[in-house]
Fold this protein.
Amino acid sequence: MTKKANLSTNICGIAFKNPVIAASGTFGFGEEYNELYDVSVLGGISSKGLTLHPKDGNEGIRVWETASGMMNSVGLQNPGIENFIKSGIPLMRRFDTVLIANMGGHSMDDYVTGAAMLSEADIDMLELNISCPNVKSGGMAFGVKADVAAEVVKAVRAVCRKPLVVKLSPNAENIVEMAQACERAGADALSLVNTFQAMAIDIHTRKPVFNNVYAGLSGAAIKPIALRMVHSVCKNVGIPVIGLGGVYIAEDVLEFMMAGAAAVQIGTVNFNNPFAGKTIVDNLFQLCEKEKIEDINSVRGCV
């Protein structure tokens, strides 16, 4: 019997059985997908994006299919951090996988209060989404300017006792400078990229498809750009990077790891194929055997 490759990886002292993590906003808290396959096969699950208070999300169309991808304007619909701690965490703890809580906010107070609450909860890591609009700065996202992002990370770091992963937006003015600023401010790891700002127009109504006009583009179409950004960031920071953006197949996982990523997240593919997580993990073993890779970490950063 052929010995299986070692797919395990370690990020900030947290052991992952493999580098495949379900991305926030695409997997709920895992329960629906667990009806289709045992989600414990995944290396980790990043929760639905959480905010301090419960949120209904955006009105109107929320998801729109595009060529080789999709656009979304869900608006962080979620039960709120308190309800997540009471009900969501016990639900996710039934799965034998790393539990990452993804959190966003619209003010510095939101971020700090929420991070303090989650820091005391039974989670493994906190993923900080800085792509949220700063209501005190005219709606510009916290993750656009490096100095603003650094302020948020520094404030959250002061109250967070869990490993802190900062999720970067590709809409940042300079993704490498943004990554370096977050590292200096205390991030333990980074995840990138979040969705690209995009637009769709209904030619029949002559109006934007989404009520908010612009929405986030994800899927296979963004992979080459995401891969370039992950490669650039990995070359310029000293902390682990989780790569995401158009990961659909096992080969994509290897590409991101060869670019320097310690793990990847899968998102839009879960909508195309709800069994994608299991399929990618299974195929990753076969791919490593084919490419004579005994330990997947051996190819990390080889490009």
